[in-house]
Structure formats: structure tokens, C-alpha cells
Design goal:
With 95 residues, the chain is mainly alpha-helical. The chain contains five helices and two strands. It has one domain: Recoverin, domain 1 (Orthogonal Bundle).
């Protein structure tokens, strides 16, 4: 598989690993999302001083109002985070 195919497969595997711990295996509950962030993006929540960050993130990701994050909503989050990281590293690069 190509690097991009591998990356896509890894995103799917990560989502499935955490979505399968409670209730609906096709969505992330708030608790599952928190665990995913703590384990897969440990600096994401730790760097923020806002104690309501998880609640705000959950509300922003939950586009359909289901109180859970489905795979499409999760992919939008991953893409947005990736875009932010790309922009950050572009700015930090050689001038």
C-alpha cells in the first residue's frame, strides 16, 4: 500500500478502536472521544487551560446533533487538525 493508503487505513483503525468500547460501534461517545484524544493526541487537551475544551470540541464536531461523533465528523476534525499543523510548520520553516 502507498503511504497515503496506509495513513487512511490508520485513521479508520484508530476511529474503530475507540468507537468499539461503548454502545454504538459506528460513533464515538464523549468518553470515547476523550480517551482517543488522551491517547492519540496527548498534547491536544493538555496544552489547553480551558476545562470545557472537550465539551466545546464535542459540540463543534457533532454536526448532526446526535451527541456522538460519527466517522465523517471525525474525519473533518482530523483534516482540520492536519491543515492547522501544515500551516504551523509552513510558518516555522526556513524563511
Amino acid at each position: 500500500m502507498s503511504k497515503l493508503e496506509t495513513a487512511m487505513g490508520m485513521i479508520i483503525a484508530v476511529f474503530d478502536r475507540y468507537a468499539s468500547t461503548e454502545g454504538n460501534k459506528l460513533t464515538l461517545t464523549k468518553a470515547e472521544l476523550k480517551t482517543l484524544l488522551e491517547k492519540e493526541l496527548p498534547n491536544f487537551l493538555a496544552s489547553g487551560k480551558d476545562k470545557d475544551a472537550l465539551d466545546k470540541l464535542m459540540k463543534n464536531l457533532d454536526a448532526d446533533g446526535s451527541s456522538e461523533v460519527d466517522f465523517n465528523e471525525f474525519v473533518v476534525f482530523v483534516a482540520a487538525m492536519t491543515s492547522c499543523c501544515h500551516k504551523y510548520f509552513e510558518q516555522k520553516g526556513p524563511k
